[in-house]
Amino acid sequence: GQNIDQPTEMTATEGAIVQINCTYQTSGFNGLFWYQQHAGEAPTFLSYNVLDGLEEKGRFSSFLSRSKGYSYLLLKELQMKDSASYLCAVRSHPPIKAAGNKLTFGGGTRVLVKP
Amino acid sequence: GAVVSQHPSRVICKSGTSVKIECRSLDFQATTMFWYRQFPKQSLMLMATSNEGSKATYEQGVEKDKFLINHASLTLSTLTVTSAHPEDSSFYICSARDLAQGSHEQYFGPGTRLTVT
């Protein structure tokens, strides 16, 4: 099976930096995704890592270490609108090709940005 | 970017009735669509993978006779919750991949909030 762990909640101050860690155990690893989800809304794509290293996209960066089963999402220059849940999701090769690659989500990390 | 729509956005139904939720890819074709369920303050749980023209693949613990999935075209998948019960009240979200782009990204619909009374 698959197991994905991330902290439940984090609090940070506007303008600061927050790092959200995600550890995973999976077979057939085929990429790791980070999504942002505001309450009552659908998730929106933030980043994708399939090779080891850091991917930077504006204020958001994501890091992956496949050997350690570890990723983090770094949010810089926090803004109030960044208050949301951040979901780590792992994609795996399916046992049946027709089933398509599927995503397994962690429990999500609720980030609260305070003024 | 690719857009996925869902209809309805909210639905309230009585216990024992059936509810159909539509998921459409508006500007791309999606051979595969995914259906998720999300309970309050929890993460997304994959229910099933919907393949155009073939039977859906259900995750362990998801009753295929209760959650009927039909993927009749490359732009439409439907989820029907049959004989709904209050415990089926949840946020149902679909997603799709734009295979023509060879994209790894899944595009999520806005979700459907189902309340069973």
Which features characterize this protein?
heterodimer; A: 115 residues; mainly beta; six-stranded mixed β-sheet; five-stranded antiparallel β-sheet; B: 117 residues; seven-stranded mixed β-sheet; four-stranded antiparallel β-sheet; 0% helix
Q: Average pLDDT across residues of chain B?
A: 91
By DSSP, the count of extended strands of chain B is 11
Low confidence ranges of chain A: none
Strand content of chain B: over 45%
Please specify the SSE layout and strand pairing:
The complex is a heterodimer of chains A (115) and B (117).
Chain A: E1 3-5, E2 9-13, E3 18-25, E4 29-37, E5 44-49, E6 53-57, E7 60-65, E8 70-75, E9 84-92, E10 102-105, E11 109-114
Parallel strand pairs in A: 2-11
Antiparallel strand pairs in A: 1-3, 3-8, 4-5, 4-9, 6-7, 7-8, 9-10, 9-11
Chain B: E1 4-7, E2 10-13, E3 19-25, E4 32-38, E5 45-51, E6 57-58, E7 67-73, E8 76-81, E9 90-97, E10 106-108, E11 112-116
Parallel strand pairs in B: 2-11
Antiparallel strand pairs in B: 1-3, 3-8, 4-5, 4-9, 5-6, 7-8, 9-10, 9-11
What does the model show?
The complex is a heterodimer of chains A (about 120) and B (about 120). With about 120 residues, chain A is mostly beta strands. Chain A has strands at about 5, 10-15, 20-25, 30-35, 45-50, 55, 60-65, 70-75, 85-90, 100-105, 110-115. The termini of chain A are far apart. The model of chain A has no long low-confidence stretch (mean pLDDT about 90). With about 120 residues, chain B is mainly β. Chain B is about 0% helix and about 50% strand. In chain B, the strands form two sheets. In chain B, strands 2, 4, 5, 6, 9, 10 and 11 form a seven-stranded mixed β-sheet that branches. Chain B has a four-stranded antiparallel β-sheet with strand order 1-3-8-7, with no helix packed on it. The mean pLDDT of chain B is about 90. The chains are: A mainly beta (about 120), B mainly beta (about 120). The interface between A and B is medium-sized, with 25 and 24 residues.
